[in-house]
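The instructor's notes for this session suggest beginning with a concrete chain rather than abstract definitions. Hand out the sequence below and ask the class to guess, before any prediction is shown, which regions might be ordered.
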Amino acid sequence: MCRILNQHLNQSQYQNRQHLDIILNHHLNQHLLQNYQHLDRILNQHLNQSLQQIHQHTDMILNYRLNQHLHQNRQHLDMILNQHLLQSHQHLGRILNQHLNQSLQQNYQHLNMILNHLLNQNLQQHLQHLCKILNQHLHQSLHQNHQHLDRILNHP
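After discussion, reveal the predicted structure:
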């Protein structure tokens, strides 16, 4: 009888342990899941902040470099435009209207070739604006030189 009771008790203890293990495992799994979820949220938040900072820093560096290139390109363009403008003014003082128009066309083509080589797509609007200004200035200079030549030719 004692042996039967002892057996029953052992079996009951074994079942209780199994049941407790199941309950503990379930609770442990729930806590682990909550901890993982919490860690995921924290890591995602930190990752998003880091990515945002990296993007901001990258944008800042790229903007700085782009501004440097823009400044250098503008200086180079100014030098080229000033050189061609000076040559065009000297040429306008020496020749007549037909030859002047041919020279201006060649200067425009040469200037466009140089500017297209130097500029990237982001500077196309700037190029168009500078060409328009140059065109207006050269036409004004042409007009002024024609007036000056007319005065010279009409009043010897």
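Then share the key points. The two ends are 149 Å apart (CA to CA). Residues 72 and 78 are 10 Å apart (CA to CA).
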